[in-house]
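Subject: Protein record for review, amino acid sequence with backbone structure tokens
How to read it: Take the token row as a discrete description of the fold.
Enclosed: The protein record, placed directly beneath this head.
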Amino acid sequence: MQGINENDFARIDLNLLVVLLVMYEVRSVTLAANRLYLGQPAVSAALKRLREMFDDPLFVRASNGMTPTPRAEQLVQQFAPLMQDLHRVIFTQQPFNAAEDSYSFRIGMSDWLEHWLMPDLLAELARVAPNVDVKVIATDPWQAIPLMEQQQADVVITVGNETSRDLTREKILRAGFSTVWHREQIQLDAPLTLQQFVSYDHALVSYRGVRESALDRQLQQHGMARRVRYVTPNFSALPMLLKRLPLFATVPQGLVPSWCALYDLSAASVPVSMPDYEVSLLWHNARSEDAANRWLRDLLRGLIKSKPIG
């Protein structure tokens, strides 16, 4: 702390300052002891330490009780507002007023979750929290844990099950996957057969650049395989690729309604069994009781639960 010698505070007991303030108010060791629920010897001992600390009698006996010295008057005038501020800092949590407060939230998410959720989130913020800003931090499921452990985001919206002792993961929504294509490139109607599914090339989103996924393992159990022609870590390029090329892409169901409406895509269930994904909120335990963070989590929770998933 700049300008402060921490060693100076080693011999200071804040309880002594409380005794000083109460003594000034009641002008009596007995009354001060009653007010503080202490014995008179304890208050007398505290008063002795105060006198040694400030090298001043502080209170002297008079006919109407203990009279403060000028040094005590000066100390009380200086300490009283400081102790009030300290009490407020320790015992009063700063509230968060979304309608008026300015705040900038850092939210980690992948690109498909941003596409799925962010338009609704920004619209809601404009309505209820006009001074709140959002910075999105690109975060795939493997980046979510280290990002939050280092508190580089306020909240992460992610899929998966991983967590750590420093973090809390709250699962909000479970959904599956759908296969999409452009009807001008692949003239097929839903539902897709397994043979149709492997007859065309596929685009695959892989955050680690691998060419196989759980879907390919399911195909192998049926004695079949697909050709993955394009691998990318991002979902955002897929609609334009599907419009230009005869490709299938298997994507989270949350993307399907908007992609079909915006890009004239067709969609069908994946013709093999696929594990569902779960959308979760992930945050650091140090922020669990923070008023602004709680407000953001409540808002995100409500928006995620209200979203269509296919």
